Amino acid sequence: MSIRSMAIGLLLAAAPLGAQGVVVGSVTDPNGRPLSGMLVSVDGTAIRAATQNGTYRAVNVPAGARTLTFRYIGFQAVSKSVTVSTGATATLDVKMTAAMTTLSAIEVKGQVAGQASALNQQRTAATISSVIDNELVGRLPDPNMAEALARVPGVAVLRDQGEGRFVQIRGTNADLNSMSLNGLRISSPEQNSRQLPMDIVPSDQAAQIQISKTLTPDMDADAIGGNVNIVTRTARANQPLLNATFAGGANQLGGGALVNVGANAGKRFGASQKLGAMIGGTYYKNERASQNIEGDWCSQTRNCGVAPSLTSLDAPNLFELRDYPQVNRLRAGLNGTLDYLLANNSKLFLRGTFNRFSDDEVRARARFRFRGGGGSRWTQVTPDSGITTGSQFDRDIRLREVIQDIITAQIGGEHFAGNGKALDWAIGTSRATESRPDVLTMSFRQSGMTLGYNFADPDRPRANVSVGSFDDPSRFGFNSLVREVRDTKDNDISAKLNASMPVAFGAFSGTLKGGVAARLKERENTLANTTFTSALGTNASGATGATLMSALTSETTGRTIFGGDYQFGRTFDPTRMADFIKANPNAFTLNTLTSQTTSAGGTFAVGEDVYAAYLMATLDAGALRLVPGVRVEATRVENTAKIISLNAAGTALSRPISDTTGTSNYVNVFPSINATYRVDEYTNVKAAITTALVRPQFQDMTPYVNVQAGQQTATIGNPALEATTALAYDLMIERYFRSVGFVSAGAFYKDLKNFIFPTARARRTDEALGPDATQVIQPVNGPTAKLYGFEVAWQQNLTFLPGMLAGLGLNANYTYTKSVAEIPGRGRTGVDTPLPGQTGNAGNLGVFFDRGPVSLRVGANYSGEFLSTINALTPEGDTRTRERLQWDASGSFQIRSGMKLFAEAINLSNTPLRATVGDRLNRGGGGDDPSYEFYKPWGMVGLRIER
Questions:
Q1: pTM of the model
Q2: Which CATH number belongs to the domain containing residue 736 in this structure?
Q3: How do residues 260-299 score in pLDDT, each as one tens digit?
Q4: What InterPro entries does the record tag this protein with (predicted)?
Q5: Calpha distance 513→11 (Å, rounded)
């Protein structure tokens, strides 16, 4: 069906209906708690509705005496009668009283209620989706939103310093997904990425997390992998809400403190409870530490400085020991909601959130630079080891604080008329900032060294110094001092207006819905870099000369890392470093050219406006529901970046750094259809054909030029980049259990066009890039890529087991994905290149026990290997993140109603984060590239109040 015929068909469906009315009402559990996701059906018709926040609205109900049936997993179905008048609204409220008999075997009712709410909403959703209720988030130790999402079928996370940060949906790169707050997009504080770092949002802030793996036309189209929508809390009817957490703990590595304090309170006011207010706050401090090994490998196809007789083997460029003695992280958040109920379940609302994430790090590095120095050469290379002469060894310290803030505000309303027509609207603003107020890195260097490595044991790679000193501070002279100030500002203004009305379309009846939306973005990145490459000061002997590391160190013996397995050596004191810089402001010589070009390369601005309109229908006929529709989005982009030109000698600018602008305008059309066939009350078959896009990363689509003296490659932007588009096919079968649980299996296939990747080309003669740059790296659009896979999930309370075993339960899921991308010029015949970020395997296994006051949980999270980055120069420089399996556990004991003591432990397996550069099978039989990061376990104990 063409887009035009689909739109005409939907419009023809909008014929007015006679002798029909509307039924509205609320549905609660025996304690008055609103039930969301309740399936409400009108007997003898195809009409059905689902509750949201405990209220429902059924349209197109034939006039006369009607019976409505209410179905909810965990409760026995209830049927109630109501009289419907033509063109009028009838009210029918229901309190579910009879729980399933199997539910009585489980004593921890609050968690079961949360699980049932999530599964009921998942069952009644128009899309293929997963839903997490706020009461489920705390079942395992998941302090931020990314950690909570990692437990969901089809979802994996990228980690930073051991904590979840970015979300991958069904194997797609995190940049191919979108994040929303109450249906409106959230700005991102990341320097170049559109993706929201989910670790900035505390998990306690959400009432519900909705993961849509297929899209409907009333959703933003820029979500090829899927959309994560965070629904904040609102005051519930009949019962005030109060919950609080007070907890503390420690990190095993470094012994730093953990503090978790948070509270939420909400209530409805007045005799009719029309006004609702909710407020909440969180404070989470994590004083972490980490230790890691990093490596960079040079393949045999590149110029590695290896002697001609040894070129059959690869060799490392760099081997680093890293110690992060201080990784102080703070998450603080505030959220509030006011809502006012009008007639016919209509309402007005005002919402606001504030979230802050700060990361204060001290990093020390010991760097074996095998290829450092103009005279370095390899004298021996075997499959597992090698020796190089004339090399360099660096020691440096970086002091870095990152502060990310996100502020959102929304105002809107939902309005329902007695004739079944509805209107909803929302206006929102979102502002995200990242500040790096003073990133300070000082480096000392020792040259003319003989270095060696031995990677025979891939879990214990080694490097050594045979000529020179490993940690004598008097042998390390000043190399560089770099100060950077970075600021990112991302401002969004969003608005949407939706309207719906009852319609009939042949054998189908339902609603026709249309709307318009706009999102106006202003983004700005600024970088101020000052690089000093020489300094004078006072050395250890008190003489004036080149500054030595000994002037800044207080250590008399070297430290160890990895539990004593590695000697890290002596390093210098961050406080002494800062004091020395402050006391000797004129002792450093500024490298003007490097400072200018680096600053210009990180400064740009983007203005992006997206205007959208859509038309869709929700049509029911018997057990079948169809949601066809089409969305149109028009995008207008205007950006500004800095252009850099070097003279022929590469010693100065050939002309002043200047602004350059680029513009882009395009329109995309997104037809889609979602279908649900209800086999029976507990079984759904869902299918979808949808289209989506992802727009280029911010700096990539600017016309910037970044070139550094002495570097063989320059990087430039590409204003001609097109958005990546996708056509997706999805199929899912779901079977829900009366005892609160489900089993599901599904498959998906995505056909991508114009995916973006970096490529290298020869420098053109008309490009003023100095004498050194011979190649240019630029993002371009690839032709096609395919991504496909399947997911299975099983979640069940095993209440059919005898005795105490009835408290057991399982939560297991697994997702397999594979992708094949056509990347021109890769030069690897017969080798398929996967899409960056595509995780081949991901899964979870959780075992839980709930009985009486006791609740116990053990969970395992697995993420398979994936391609992290594409190297523009050679496939053998690609980076891969290795597979990772992490075990967590938690337990609680209810000391009185609504109050429990709890304990939780994270990363019990002390699983490292591992990465490899290049093709690790092409190592001549040697070990993997050395890249590990260890954190050790951490945990806390505390008190949780839930009322």
A1: 0.90
A2: 2.40.170.20
A3: 999 999 999 988 899 999 999 999 999 999 999 988 776 5
A4: Beta-barrel_TonB, Beta-barrel_TonB_sf, Carb-bd-like_fold, Plug_dom, Plug_dom_sf, TonB_rcpt_bac
A5: 10
